[in-house]
Amino acid sequence: MADTKEGLMRREDIAATLRPFDQASPLAGPAYRDAAILEAEFDRIFLEMWLCVGHQDAVRHAGDFVMREIGGESVLVVRDRDGSLGAFYNVCRHRGTRLIDDSAGGGIDCIRCPYHGWSYGLDGGLIAAPLMDGVSGFDKADYPLRAIRCDTWEGFVFVNFEAGAAPLGEYLADFPDVSRFAMADMRLGAMHEYEIAANWKLVCENYGECYHCPSNHPQLNPISNFQSGGDSVEGSSFCGGPMRLNEGCVTMTMDGQTKRDPIAGLPPEDLRQVHYFNIYPAFLLSLHPDYVLTHTIWPLAADRSFIRCEWLFTAEAVARDDFDPSDAVDFWHLTNEQDWAICERAQKGVRSRAYVPGRYQGLEETIYFFDNWYLRAMEAALSGMEPALAGEVGVSSHDAAGAVPRAAAPVAAATTSDDGGA
Predict the structure, then answer these.
(1) How many structural domains are present in the chain?
(2) How far apart (Å, rounded) are the C-alpha atoms in residues 231 and 417?
(3) Shared-domain flag, residues 24 and 66
(4) Which CATH number covers residue 15?
C-alpha cells in the first residue's frame, strides 16, 4: 500500500500549482523558506541530477581544476595530463580531510592533503602516503579518490553524484539543437560571483519571466521589449525560449551595439533574438548573437544562494588586441544586481504567514513550467505520497512520472519570458 504520511507542504497548495496554467497559482511559501524542504531538495534534486559546474575553458590545461560545493558535498573537476576530465569527492581517503578550498586553479601536479600529506595524481590515484609502507596490507592502489560521474555537453562540464542516473546525453536528449553557437570552442571572458539572501528557486523563477522588467530594469526594455516573446517551450530537462532585440539593436549591451562580430554561421533569425533557457535544476543559459551568458545557482540555505555568472566569447574575439567584454559584462552585472535586490525583497515577503500565492500572469508561463517540474521532482517528499498517488494531489496537465512528453521545440521558438539576469 502506498505511503500517505504527512508531507512537507499542504497537498492543496501542491494541487493549486499543478492545475492547468490558466487556473494555477505559484508555489506556496514553505517551498522558499523551509530548511527541511531544502534538505529534501539536496537529496532528490541536487545530489541526483546532472549539475553544470562551468565551461570547459576553466579546465583547459593539465592541472587546471574547479571545485564546487552542494548539499554538504564538495567535488573537484580536474584536467589530467592525457587531456581527460575527472571528477572526485574533495575528500582525502586517509581521514576525510578537505583537500582543496579554492573554487578554481591551475598548474597543479598533484592533489595533496594538507593534513598528513597523502597525495593523489590528476587521475585521482593515490601516489604518495608518507610512512604507510609499514602498515600491514596497505596498498596505495586501494585508496584512489572517490570518483563522481563527469561528462560534457556543448563545452559545459556536468557532474552527477548519483551513480545510477541516466547518462547526460539521455538527460538532455530533447533539448533544442544549439550546436550552431559552437559553445565548445568559446573562451571565458569574464566572471562574477554573488551571494544573495534569497532561495534558489526565486532566482530561477525571476530568470524565467520579464513581467518584472519594466519596473526593475529600465536599461533592458529599450534593447529588448519585455513583451517581445511568444510561446514558451519546455522539455523534460529544461524550459525557456527567446526574446527579440528591438529594431536597430544587435546585442544586449547598454546601447544595444558592440564592436564584436556575431558568432560565425548563425542564421539571420538568431541575430535578431536572444535565447534563454533554464536547464534543470539551476543552469541558466543565455545565447546572444555575439556571446553566451551563464548563471549557475548553488543553494547555501533556504534563504541564501551563491551564483556564479560567466560570459563566454568566441576565441577569435578574445584573441583580438582590442578585446573588451565590458559592454556585455556591465549590462548584465547591472541587471543581475537589480534582480538580486528584487529576489531578496521577494524572500522577505514569502517568509510571512500572510503570504498566499495569487495567480500566474500570462508572461509567467515559463515559471509555471519550472514550478511544475519542481513539484514532480519533489512529489513524494512534499506531499507525503508516493508518485502513484500523484493524481490525488491534482496532477492534470503533466505526466505524473515526471517527464513532460513534448517534442523538442526548435530553439527559434518564441517565449514570453526571460530577462536572462536571473
Answers:
(1) 2
(2) 9
(3) no
(4) 3.90.380.10
Q: Quick one: three-class SS letters along the chain?
A: CCCECCCCCCHHHHHHHHCCHHHCCCCCCHHHHCHHHHHHHHHHHHCCCCEEEEEHHHHCCCCCEEEEEECCEEEEEEECCCCCEEEEECECCCCCCECCCCCEECCCCCEECCCCCCEECCCCCEEECCCCCCCCCCCHHHCCCCEEEEEEECCEEEEECCCCCCCHHHHCCCCCCCHHHCHHHCEEEEEEEEEECCCHHHHHHHHCCCCCHHHHCCCCCCCCCCCCCCCCEEECCEEEEEEECCCCCCCCCCCCCCCCCCCCCCCHHHHHEEEEEEECCCEEEEECCCEEEEEEEEEEECCEEEEEEEEEECHHHHHCCCCCCHHHHHHHHHHHHHHHHHHHHHHHHHCCCCCCCCCCCHHHHHHHHHHHHHHHHCHHHHHCECHHHHHHHCCCCCCCCCCCCCCCCCCCCCCCCCCCCC
Same-domain check for residues 160 and 121? yes
**Cα distance from N-terminal residue to C-terminal residue, the chain:** 42
Task: Give per-residue pLDDT as tens, 252-292.
Answer: 999 999 999 999 999 999 999 999 999 999 999 999 999 99
pLDDT tens digit sequence for 46-85: 999 999 999 999 999 999 999 999 999 999 999 999 999 9
Q: Confirm if 325 and 288 have CB atoms less than 8 A apart.
A: no
**Do 232 and 358 have their domain in common?**
yes
Structural domain boundaries enclosing 155: 51-169
Q: What is the CATH number of the domain that holds 55?
A: 2.102.10.10
pLDDT in tens, 22-50: 999 999 999 999 999 999 999 999 999 99
The reply to whether 402 falls in a domain is: no
